[in-house]
User: Which sequence fits this backbone?
């Protein structure tokens, strides 16, 4: 099969005519399909319904240390919940604070506290002329939204198959004390599904930042979100590596059960060094008297331990795996030989990234929307919503049913082909 670049103008025009006819037929179907956000599907949410039954009015709502969970107190979380989360993310319970339902909320708080009060006695960022963050791209749009909201300058760092370009990271943080942090999704990254290599993690741990208050914002959102039992990515533990490298305070590690139990009703946590914990608690005790301890107990009673979470996540994988495989198989069959883009085949996480020909992403997303398929806006995986090459599209397979997703994927393929031919013909005419 010829690539589109190898086709003659006549061949491309003929192909375009056929695709336009197919596209108009699709538009006439009046579809309303959504692939815009990484939300669990209804079948995934059903997996945790039993959690609502593990506590009732007859349950003795006491922690294993005897604390009455109906009352105030316990700033950092009940011991059994701290152990559960610590085991999930590979750290020690004493390094963990359990919050409410959202890790994004914790990340926002950490940036806000740094702005208002400073980190561990350093100058509050609001008193500085300039504050910068490094942003591996493509990345998570809500990370970028936080730093943009606080007026923090964002610097793009390209993602490689091994993680962020560490040559660039090392050079920038060592020379510029206005760089105060970097956003990281280190395992099954959002949106590419890349897991940082051992060497990348160790290079992070060995960073020598010019700023004393530089922190790595390590959002390990997909640490247990494997698609396969026997083919999983492995991520070495960053806190231990930082301690080994003499940089124990350099990382804030975040996680949540939002895509394990219920989004909006899960547990979120931060894990970090003793010095950082002391700094956080000093401010946290003014902010709250404690988070939802009953929900913490509910999660422990339902999952019991990390092995219970592992078994639970196998059920999630059984739901997600056919969706991921269908999309990737469709791309292989319909797009692989046409020279119109590239994609990763992740082993876990929640997203697939499709990279179009340069200058085509917005066109593809717009065409898909007109055909009844809502996608994440082109540019969203970049700071300020600006993709320099206009090529990255994030695909979210989780929420639609497999049937709806199959339809949406076929429509996406048509839109990719249309946008690609239009670009190539436009270049030939220029």
Assistant:
């Amino acid at each position: 099969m010829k690539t589109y670049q190898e086709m003659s103008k006549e061949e491309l025009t003929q192909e375009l005519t056929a695709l336009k006819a197919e596209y108009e037929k699709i538009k006439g179907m009046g579809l309303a399909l959504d692939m815009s956000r990484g939300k669990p599907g209804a079948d995934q949410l059903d997996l945790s319904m039993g959690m609502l039954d593990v506590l009732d009015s007859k349950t003795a709502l006491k922690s294993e240390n005897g604390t009455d969970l109906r009352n105030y107190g316990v700033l950092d979380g009940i011991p059994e919940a701290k152990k559960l989360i610590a085991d999930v993310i590979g750290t020690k319970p004493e390094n963990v604070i359990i919050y409410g339902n959202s890790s994004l909320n914790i990340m926002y708080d950490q940036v806000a506290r740094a702005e208002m009060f400073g980190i561990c006695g350093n100058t509050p960022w609001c008193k500085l002329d300039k504050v910068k963050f490094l942003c591996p791209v493509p990345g998570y749009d809500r990370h970028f939204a936080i730093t943009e909201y606080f007026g923090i300058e964002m610097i793009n760092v390209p993602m490689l198959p091994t993680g962020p370009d560490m040559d660039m990271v090392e050079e920038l943080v060592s020379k510029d004390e206005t760089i105060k942090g970097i956003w990281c999704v280190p395992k099954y990254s959002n949106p590419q599904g890349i897991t940082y290599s051992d060497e990348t993690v160790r290079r992070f741990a060995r960073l020598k930042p010019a700023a004393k208050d530089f922190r790595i914002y390590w959002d390990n959102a997909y640490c247990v979100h494997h698609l396969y039992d026997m083919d999983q990515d492995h991520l070495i533990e960053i806190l231990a590596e930082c301690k080994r490298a003499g940089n124990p305070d350099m990382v804030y590690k975040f996680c949540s059960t939002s895509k394990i139990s219920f989004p909006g009703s899960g547990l979120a946590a931060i894990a970090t060094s003793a010095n950082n914990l002391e700094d956080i608690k000093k401010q946290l005790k003014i902010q709250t008297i404690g988070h939802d301890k009953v929900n913490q107990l509910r999660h422990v009673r339902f999952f019991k331990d990390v092995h219970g979470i592992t078994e639970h996540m196998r059920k999630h994988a059984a739901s997600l795996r056919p969706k991921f495989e269908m999309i990737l198989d469709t791309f292989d069959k319909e797009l692989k030989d046409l020279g119109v883009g590239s994609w990763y085949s992740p082993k876990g996480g929640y997203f697939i990234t499709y990279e179009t020909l340069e200058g085509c992403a917005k066109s593809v997303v717009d065409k898909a929307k007109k055909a009844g398929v809502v996608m994440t806006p082109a540019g969203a995986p970049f700071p300020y919503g600006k993709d320099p090459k206009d090529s990255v599209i994030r695909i979210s397979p989780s929420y639609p049913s497999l049937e709806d997703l199959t339809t949406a994927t076929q429509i996406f393929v048509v839109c990719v082909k249309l946008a690609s031919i239009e670009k190539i013909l436009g270049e030939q005419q220029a």
